[in-house]
Write a structure and sequence with these properties.
The chain contains 8 helices and 4 strands. The protein is mainly alpha-helical. The chain starts with a strand and ends in a 62-residue tail after the last helix.
Length: about 270
């Protein structure tokens, strides 16, 4: 059986609704990896994403990469070629088409706002809930985060060294240098957070929370756990929006009643005597 070869479709990407600005971010990232010289397999694209994209965006899973490659082929933005019998192991390589490069260039050079960065910091979420955690545990989490960030910083610097001197990777080097500076700042921020956690305010809040944990000694004068009426500390008190009550229906003013005339004694009533 002849090796299967897939070429770009004659259908216009615009007719398929495949404008680059309408592609999901993962598809644009995969198409961007294909925009550099040469053909790449899905596995090679994953390695490139791990060595570059993940330091400032994210690295798609290998299953996501193959799904987006199929989408890009259907839109005419990519083409694939299966290796022949001379290869010891069959594999499929992908390349960008002229339509795909033009669509990607139009998106990259567009005048639209790129949008704000999205930050999801799992460690900070735990620190935010530090009043429910032992202080030593929080400090251990931050210390491990510093070590992990320093390992990632070493990987960024290794990627920079590999990309040095390659003209096609001049702009990825700019992104990697930004990633290097960001990770250096992340280490400094985490070290400053360790100092904050060692302060008396953070330690006191965590200690107060530990006293209310199950198994802690309870003050018999304060009633059952969870029934204390003491106000929450100011640092943990969240603003509560005022509840809007429906306006009361205005009542008409009451007419003043005339005073009753004095009651005349009845002739049949007994007289005091």
């Amino acid at each position: 059986m002849a090796a299967r070869r897939t070429t770009s479709h004659s259908t216009s990407p615009q007719q398929e609704g495949g404008a680059a600005d309408e592609l999901p971010p993962t598809a644009r990232a995969v198409l961007g990896l294909l925009s550099f010289p040469g053909e790449r397999t899905g596995y090679e694209l994953k390695k490139w994403a791990d060595a570059s994209l993940r330091f400032f965006y994210w690295s798609p899973a290998i299953s996501q990469i193959y799904a987006e490659l199929r989408r890009l082929e259907a839109l005419g933005y990519a083409t694939s070629r299966r290796s022949g019998p001379e290869e010891p192991r069959a594999k499929r390589s992908y390349a960008i088409t002229e339509e795909g490069r033009a669509a990607l260039a139009a998106w990259a050079g567009g005048g639209r706002d790129a949008g704000p960065p999205v930050l999801k910091h799992p460690l900070l979420l735990r620190v935010w809930l530090g009043h429910l955690t032992a202080p030593d545990h929080l400090r251990a989490l931050v210390t491990e985060h510093i070590a992990q960030t320093e390992r990632e910083l070493a990987e960024v610097r290794e990627a920079l060294a590999l990309a040095a001197g390659t003209e096609a990777w001049s702009h990825p080097q700019v992104a990697l240098r930004w990633s290097e500076r960001r990770l250096v700042a992340e280490v400094e921020l985490a070290e400053a957070m360790l100092d904050d956690l060692a302060g008396p305010g953070a330690a006191g809040a965590s200690a107060d929370s530990a006293q209310g944990a199950p198994g802690a000694d309870a003050d018999p004068t304060q009633g059952a756990p969870g029934t204390s009426t003491d106000p929450a500390p100011a640092a943990l008190a969240l603003p509560v929006p005022p509840q809007t009550q429906p306006p009361h229906k205005a009542q008409p003013p009451r007419r003043p009643q005339p005073p009753h005339p004095p009651r005349q004694p009845s002739e049949d009533a007994p007289t005091p005597g």
